[in-house]
Amino acid sequence: MVTAGTRTCVIALRASGPATSQHLRSDQAKQIVDMRHDQNLWKCLDGYGECDHTALAESEAKEVADAKHQRNLLARETGYGLCDRTLLRAEEARQIGLGSSS
User: Fold this and answer.
1) Rounded to whole angstroms, how far apart are CA atoms 65 and 38?
2) What whole-number distance in Å separates Cα of residue 2 and Cα of residue 84?
């Protein structure tokens, strides 16, 4: 959640360059950590940019895997982007003629 305090802290950080924890109150430092985590999560979810999977909670990792799968399906269905057929589930592969029909 972005608050006036968060905006002030972010503006101050951008203006002054990298800050160390000694320059921030504990609540501000926590807000920065939370914002960095959220930025990483968004990068992981949208598939663009550097994503640190090790920083994700188990539930977030599952959400990211689901999002990746959905992007892959969309690429297969629309022809936009590259579809990694190895990531398709058996039923999905059968639908496009890649799996066995048994």
Assistant:
1) 16
2) 37
Residues in the chain: 102
Q: Residue ranges per domain, the chain? A: 1-56, 58-102
Place of tokens 């059968």: 94
Name residue, tokens 């590259």.
Answer: 82
18 SS3 class:
coil
Cβ atoms < 10 Å from Cβ of 71: 17
Beta carbons within 8 Å of 8's beta carbon, 6+ residues apart: none
End-to-end CA distance of the chain: 50
pLDDT tens track for 30-83: 999 999 999 999 999 999 889 999 999 999 999 999 999 999 988 888 888 788
Q: Are 13 and 32 in contact (CB under 8 A)?
A: yes
DSSP state of 97: T
